[in-house]
Structure formats: C-alpha cells, structure tokens
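TA notes. Do not distribute before section.
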Amino acid sequence: MACDKVLHIRAGHCCHHRGFSGTDKIEGFAVHAFKDDSIRGIHLYGNDFFGVALNKTVYVGQFKNDNLTEIGRIPLNEKVYADAHGDSSLLEFKLIDASSALICVPRACSMCSMRIDLTPDCYDIHLKFEKLSSVSATVVKNNVIIRTVYNKDDASIHYLFPTHQFKEYVFGKWSIDPFNRNEIETVAAFSTAIHSYFVGSAKQPNTSLFPFNHKNYDNVNWNLQQ
C-alpha cells in the first residue's frame, strides 16, 4: 500500500512523515502531501518561497496567510534523479530563486529551471568521475562557487560559469586543499555580495609537539573558508 509523504511546516520547525493523504491545516501547521513521492530535501528561499526536492521534480510553494500554496514544479534531469536502487540522498539542494534550483547527488550536480511544459531545463555541472562524498555550493549572479570533496581526502573549491550555447557550467578559477588533510567534510555554504564562505571540518597533522616527544598527532579542525 502506497503512503503519501506529508510535510508539516510551522514557524521555525519542519518535519515530514508517512501516513497522511490530502492537503489540510492542523493546529497552525501548513501541511502538504506528496503522493507516491519521496521528500529528499527542503530549502527556504527568502521568507516566502519554500522548495521541496522530490524524486524527479522540485516543488516550489509560497507562504500566504499561513498557507503553503504551490506556484510550480521544477523538472530535474536524469543525472540527479533518485536512482533505481532507492538512493535518494542529496549532498546539496538550494532554491536559487522562485523558479530555479541547484541540486547535487554523489554522481552529479545540475542547475534546473521551471518550465510550463514540465520538460527539464537544466545546466550540467561537470565534475570528476568519482563519487562525491560531500559538496556545498553558493550561486552569485548565475555563477556557481562549489566546494567538492571526494573520498574525504581530496577537496577543492571551483568557480564555474554558464555557457549558454552548450547548456553547461565550465570551470574557471579553482583552489586545492593542502595534501596533508583527511576526513574532510563540507556542510554548508553562504555568500555576501563580495565573498563566498564554506563551513566544514578536516583532520590534519599537528607537528608542534614533535621536537619534544617525536610523535605526530592529528587535530580535527572546524574551518570557515573564504
């Protein structure tokens, strides 16, 4: 028996679970049901627009008078679908505005926009052939600044810009993390009008005590990178 996925939204609180159908309002919650679909991620854009990443689309709703009203769907391309084995996990998902979204899975990233005919209108972001272990991204004036981590020991930051003729993002400037880091994770990203910042952690050798006891120790550091 198929169950609907239900999203409850309240000021400062979100959750979802199985077992409800239809659309309703319960005890001050905005409630929306997604029939026979999986809720893979959520993102609030500004104060009004709410994105929900589903198996093959992104639902975009707008808050009006404590109700969540659908304004459209963003169709995704196959590269960022939930795969046939049920791996629907997202590494990154953000609404860029009320009609476009950035979405990343371990094998690919895409920037997709809303269309009336619900056919995918996406720009591919070409990454390495290995699977990503974590990724964070920001978007500034249609350019993507993305931090990628492979196998938790190979990390870099890339500045990408769109090529409209081929509908893809190409690499511009980039930087690589020091090679003595491992167990690298990136967990969030945000931008100002001038800079982009990435929040994460990494383990790296601490050699400060080596002259005294001839041993190396690993420190786990939380980093805010610009």
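Switch to the second chain here.
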Amino acid sequence: MDAHLSYQVYLATNPEAIPPPMPDHPDPSIRLWFEQGNRQHEVTQSPYCQPVCELVSLALRQLCYGQAAEHLLLILKQIAGTSIAVSHLGERKQLAEADIRGCLLDEPLDFVLKRLPDNSNGNIVWGEVVKGAGKSEIAINIELAAAICDPAPPTFTDSNAVSTGLRFLLFVTIFHEVVHVITNKIFVQLITPPLPSFEQDDDGHGEAGDTLEMRFFGFITLVSLGLGDVNASDRLWRIQEFTAYNRINRPSRILDAQTMEAILSSVKNMEPWGPLWNILPETNFDPSTQRRMRRNNRGGA
C-alpha cells in the first residue's frame, strides 16, 4: 500500500473533525507582527499574510483540541515527574489538557515575522521563541513566511511541490515553537532534563518540541539543498527534497508533496493521518552534492 492509498483508507473512516469554535470551545487568539529594525507593526488582518495566519490557527486548534494535546500532556507529565522539575517548582505539578488550553487561550499569542540569521553551523533557523518581560513571542523566519505568501516563481518547474513542502515546514515550525511557549509557561525557566524516549538537543537536554514532532508525526522534517544553493537568495525554492528523519528507523524517507498535503489536510481532524514509515520511499540524499538541514531551534528547552 502506498501513501496515497493509505490516506484514502483513512478518509473512508470518516474521521471526526475538530469542532468549530463555540463560546465554551474557542479558538486561540493570535496576533501576527512584522518586524523591521527595532519596530514591529501588526499584520494580522493583512490579506498578504493570511496564508501564515491560517497555518498558525490550524496548528493551535490541533494543539488545543486534537490528538496533539494528548501527546503533549504525556510529555508535560514526564517532565513534571522528574526530580529536577519538582525541585525547581517546589511541587509535583498535576497536569491536565485544560492546562495546555489555558496556555493557549488565556491571552493572545504573538507571532513575529522577522529576519533570523542562519546559525553557527550554517543551518537555516525557521523559528524560535523569544522570551521578553513577562511574555514569550514566536519569531518566524521572514524568508519562509514570504515564500508561502508570495506566488510560486514560474522559473522553477517543481515550484508547486516545493510550495506545499514550505507550507508543511511552517506548520511544523509553529507546532514545535508553541510547545516551547507552553513548557516555558508551565515550568518557568526550567531546562528540560534528558528523559527516556525524549529527543535531545545538541547540549544533551531534553527537547520537548522535537519529542512532540516524533510522537505526533512519527518523524522530524529535514530539507536538502544542493551545496551551491545554500546561500542563494531564492534558496527555499531550490530545496531538492523534504525528508522524514527518525533516529530509530533508518534510512530516512522522502516526503513528497502529496504526502505532506495529505497530512496538512488531516490535522483539522481530532486524529490526523500519518504515513506508515515503510510505505515512504527511501531518501536520495548524496552528501557529496547536497546539504541536509534539520529544523533548528534556538529559543526553547
């Protein structure tokens, strides 16, 4: 069975949609900002920015009311049960999905479109959590946002497929960074300790965002660029492959446009669809001609 047929089987089960917003079941409130220099101005209502707003809302609704909330609650409970967390907070927090929704519904969430320099390893930083006085905001790489909001350039023959991949990548980035906002609110400056079955960051700490990606999607999303395209001004449109990475299941697998579109279409449901690992084709990565970039985070624990 290939991924397309697997998705058709999923649709045949008539998956339950996340209910529409109601007074006792509201959507999270968001504010979208554009940052230039040291100034920000709000662009939430800008028609140009609506593709970003729609993906933000889609991710937040899944985290509030879908299966993602169940996965995230288990992650938060694992962190809360560590001796480090108990010592840091002075108690063992008893957590429920209502605590997740409280983090997302109590006040508007701020997302800022801004330039994010590549990290010291030359990897693209898609997003990060910026902690300020009494609040956190999520920065989204303006390069990624603009590629989604602008028309696909006609000079690239596979621009429609890349456009789908970029939309999926933005969804995953939002998903990941919101997890860090929630952990920051609940555990207040706690650095997540290494835990069994948790993903880890480069410093050996537990990585809650990557862990949710693994448990929800079954993989972490990578992109591959030709070595000569890494610094090109239109490099996002030169992405050669979107890849599903899983440290346990090797080798990595290809995420084609149809698979990523199917996942995005399904996250509006309580239980989204995900492709079985062995039905995805193996990656074509060639380290002599390509560079593979992992979703990089600099702002969360």
